[in-house]
Amino acid sequence: MNRSSLRLPIAQLIALTSLHFIVDAFAGMPSVLLPNIRNNFTLTLTQGVAIIVILDISCNVFQILTGHLRSKSTKPLFMQIGLLLASLVTLIFLVPQSHAFYFLCLIFLLAGVGIAIVHPEALRAVHTIARIPATIATSVFITAGFLGFSSGGYIASILIQRFGATSIAWMALLTIPPILFLHLTKVKLATDDHKNDQDNVSLRDVYPFWIIFLMSLPITVSSTILVRLLPSRLAEIGFDVGFTGKSVLLYGIGSAVGSLVWAQLAHKKGELITTSILMLIGAPLLVLYLANLDSAQAIWLLMISGFFASSTYSFIITMGKKATGLKLGQRMGFLIGGAWGFASLVLLALSKPAEIYGIEKILAAVPLGFACASVIGLALFYKTRKKQILKQLQKP
Questions:
Q1: Separation of alpha carbons 116 and 55, rounded Å
Q2: Phi and psi angles of residue 5, each rounded to the nearest 5 degrees, phi first
Q3: DSSP codes of every residue in 371-388
Q4: What does pTM read for this prediction?
Q5: Which of 377, 358, 390 is nearest to 290 (CA)?
Q6: Within a 10 A sphere around the Cβ of 46, how many other Cβ atoms?
Q7: Taking the mean position of all CA atoms in its chain, how far away is CA 177?
Q8: What is the pLDDT of residue 140?
Q9: What pLDDT does 196 receive?
Q10: Which end of the chain is less congested by CB atoms within 10 angstroms, N or C?
Q11: 181 in Cβ contact with 13 (< 8 Å)
Q12: 3-class SS of residue 208
């Protein structure tokens, strides 16, 4: 294969990857900026968490509601519209002080809709890239989202420290390059009759979907609580917005790198056992990090815990894709929309207890979620292996 034949596919992957990075950067900004938002508009912790939950729930619900739209179309549309809507979060410090909470709710709702409609269409586009294996293209695309989500708050925090809160509005200009790049590279969308690799799945790692979904819930709840509340706790104990942004960034980098590093092991040994063991290692590291939260050096423990614990969700998606029960689209909807939407509702329910008893009390439970998911995974793994051994013994 000559290099010239790869130029267009690589350019298309770069276009989609940059778009995913930027749209998820807008999604990740609010949690890092939450202390600034609360101070600027005099919001309670419960109100601050509520506007973030509006963003998170609209991201997930509208992804399910709109994912089937334009299924026959091959030209992108929702990607461009969604990116522009998502960029509304950059305007949060420009809303009037009067009735600010309601203006923020509207902005975060519209931004969530924008983030939601980008993802299904972008994933359809990834499946049309020629000459690049689908597994590689999808991994690069998903990793860009990890890095974007964790980078958005850090970029915004640097701007705020140097130029003031309203300067993050300039981040809206980041929408221009990927939109132009999508047009120049002539990105197309896969249609509903596009063949997937479901028929070529190995039966070794096929599990009941609802157990995989059950395993996903404590992971999404713990991840959401950690990423959304940690910046506020760091601000409470005296760290500035730059450090809180850096903390989320390093956690995201650890998760993204871990997802790529452990992918080969998961492919060889199986996603379930790999995921279970990695979370079992990551949970104590998170306990150690939270016990030393007031130390700036503990930030590296956070990064390492992300490398083990939260890097595993891409393997949950892979298991969900191969699982038995429901249709493929429904399984992806539950794992991408339903599980994270549920986590957002849990976060909202915990916002008042966090305000009354302290954020640190809620964060202390985060490692338990990863440990719980690990136990479910190990139980399923050994139960399945036991059945396989018994079948082998019963063969004549």
A1: 10
A2: -70, -15
A3: HHHHHHHHHHHHHHHHHH
A4: 0.84
A5: 358
A6: 15
A7: 23
A8: 82
A9: 45
A10: C
A11: no
A12: strand
